[in-house]
Records
---
Amino acid sequence: MAKREMASRTEIAQRVVYWRKRRGLTRKLFADRMGRSVSWVDMIQRGDRRLDRLSVLEQIADVLEISIYTLIDRQQAQRTAECVDNTEVRTIRDALQRYDVITRTFSSDGPSDEPDLPRLRQQVDYAWLAFQASHYSTLGPLLGKLLVATQHASAHLAGTAGQTAHVLLTQVYQLITSTLRKLGHHELEWLAAERGVQAAERTENAIVIAGAAFRLVNALGATNGAAAAVDAATASAHRLQPALDVKQPEPTSLLGHLYLQGAVWAAHQSDPHRVRDLLGEAERLAARLGGDRNDYWTAFGPTNVAIHRVSAYLALRDWPSAVQVAEQMNQHRLNLLPKERRANHCVDVARAYALGAKTEEAVAHLLQADDLAPKEVRCRPITRDLVHDLWRSRRSTSAGLRQLVEQIGLPA
């Protein structure tokens, strides 16, 4: 019993350390908020007996802004650690509302330190890699701070350094937009996307503008604006085509991705003819590239065109065509894409099978997505809802579906 109790305290202590660091609290700051000494914090982090006291655990959970069950329940601890939580979403919202760094009107003095552009660029690249690996728990603590830092740099630097800062700020807005979209926070997604386009236009760079534009297209569609999303996609493509429809692959990838987003939202409008035309344009550009690339984090190429064709057929509720396209895809090329793209595709295929009442096939693809990128399944509302619907329908009692229900934390 004593060994088991010690092991339990050790696990809780490890969770305290994890969440203290994830919240960006030093030992001293954590101690101050607890009303304790640093030595007390050190004892707690080593698994002190006081971790058996409910009052101590409740105070720690309150300071760390987590549920007490995140400290004491192993499954709940794992589920919570995987995803961006409400506290981190609030931090992103607070950063979006920081008008002292958005505009000089509300700003007093500039930052005390000169913005470190190489470090900011490194952090932005790291955030993109985390996103494409579906590491949302990494992005949660990072994005709010990164937005404030790049806003400061954009507001206070001039010349070439200022242009670089504008580009980095635009990319951070895009990261925030894409992350919030995954998590279902569409009003904040819209705000970040709109700000991203405004920041991009300051660069007067068609490539940067196109990257922001297709995120705005998705934000429009996600806020019940499918028609506006299609119009924005086609208008942006038309406006930017002279600069993007060129021999260089990077601009071509962005133009092609605009067409892909337009096609998916045209499908949500039940407009198969427009879907065909927009996918055709994207296919033409992908054929010019001759292979799959990841320019500006788009993963654009023939395989991603096929992925979006599946998404479009799904939106048209033509599940047999969606499944047929998925089955005919080149698996080797698919396996070379970022995990986020592959897992998202598996979820779409699962949704198509579920639409056709083929529950076991749907579960198999959800398990494949969970194996590729667990957070793509366990953190996204659209996937959680699909698992819940499959479980509630009782058309399957497979061990795989039960496993997903338990991992996600749905009531069994």
---
Amino acid sequence: MQELFQSYINYLEVERNASPYTVRNYKTDLLDFFNFLREKKVGSLTEVDKHILREYLSYLVGQNIVKRSIARKLSAIRSFYRFLQREEIIAVSPVANTTSPKLDKRLPAFLSQDEINRLLEAPDLSTPQGQRDRALLELLYASGLRVSEIASLDVEQVDFETNEIRVWGKGAKERVVLMGKPAAEALTAYLKKGRPELLGGKKTSKALFVNRYGGCLTERSVQKLLERYAGIAGIKKRVHPHMLRHTCATHLLDGGADLRVVQELLGHASLSSTMIYTHVTKSQARKVYLSAHPMAKEKRDENK
């Protein structure tokens, strides 16, 4: 079982080119499943059937595991058994007809225009770290990049003539994202002054966003920076990198962007992933309604 597990992890990392986050989650979820099988004296993966799977799902529910986590664990098991079929170790997957728990629809949290403006103004531009962090925040909001994508950016991936950035997202799929003038200006200022100061004039690095040791910023570092600046900006919400991705998508659609364009910019494989952002704030919905519906005008010409 251990050998098959390791082969599967290698498959995820090498052939599927899954993100470190995905690999970590799948490892954790599968090891939990294997522990359950050991407790039930199941000695081989070929012994697993739909009854054992149902028992495992019942066990998770009994442990008060939330539906979303249960669905993720089941997805990891399903992927693992597809791999076993691919390797012709099993003929039929016991997970094939097992349905995931129905999830409650959860709209992504995003920042208002006022909140995002306060967040972007939070870094101290008199320091090289502040110049870096302003550029980082501007780019996260402008491009909708995933934290893994922005942390791994190299300087050469940015084209300032076209304000385009070439990135490699999930599954090593290449795409081009755009940045507006504020993000381009913040990046230019950081590259001219802040980044050389952080590098100390002696070190060389391909990384776009570097720490004071000249190495690239980690995903965890980006998360901590966002938490700190959210506090400085007086934002009460828990701000994380993916929230800026949500904010970018929401503000694009609220501004009239085409759904397909947003899908391409975010790198979503399915349009359904992008459609969740079609929600709008109450004030925006009211504004559109009052301006569009002839019987909803707040002031009407009584002579007509």
---
Amino acid sequence: MIPAAAAGTVRLGDLTVNRIGFGAMRVCGPDIWGPPKDRAAAHRVLRRAIELGVNFLDTADSYGPEVDETLIAEALHPYPPGLVIGTKGGLVRPTRHAWDPDGRPEHLRRALDGSLKRLKLERIDLYQFHAPDPRVPFAESMGALAEAQAAGKIRHLGVSNVSVRELAEARRIAPIVSVQNEYNLDDRGADDVLAACEKAGLAFIPWFPLGAGRLPRSSKVQRAARRAGATPAQVAIAWLLARSPVMLPIPGTASLQHLEENVAAAALKLAAADLEALS
């Protein structure tokens, strides 16, 4: 099995990770709500990701909610050397289908403390503000996280679901090492944010790298997959890796087979003609 290291590396501040991570969201229950039906199977997926050379895990307190981080600690603590766990705070889940922003400083402080407890950490390597809250000044939210970083609870800060303007504002408040926005072959609305990350040397973590499962069904992706002798999902991931050197895809799954296929995309180099056709 091809290890994640075949994709090369990317920097998160003073940390270096392989350029295929794992989005742990999918090991929760359906709709990212509640625990998985088979907890042991979820643990096996998380452990297999590490065996395959994945050393960056993406999670959030809202996944479950408060389930995903617990699963990671159950499966992997004490953590292997070099593993970087990125989590997020700033969204709440009052119901199964609700993802509501809450950027109040007092909420973010509680969310961070909860993540530290569930992950069994004294300091989180990467903590990302999950989404701006239109009811709370962005600077207040980021200021609270900058204070937590100064207190030693956060190693590096990132932002998620932001505009170029919001990224610039965040960088005026505290050092930022990553941005996590939706981005994939069919949704390139964050091209300007990606360009800003490239210019500043920040990692760009695309969420929904497979378009929530839509991309593997795309005819153009399937054609490229047949020519490359790969799966459609592998083509979608390889396209992201080729798109930018700061790209850090985090395809997620609850399937061991799909996990291994996704990581194998680390070594897939698409032909120039396929890259042009997909772009």
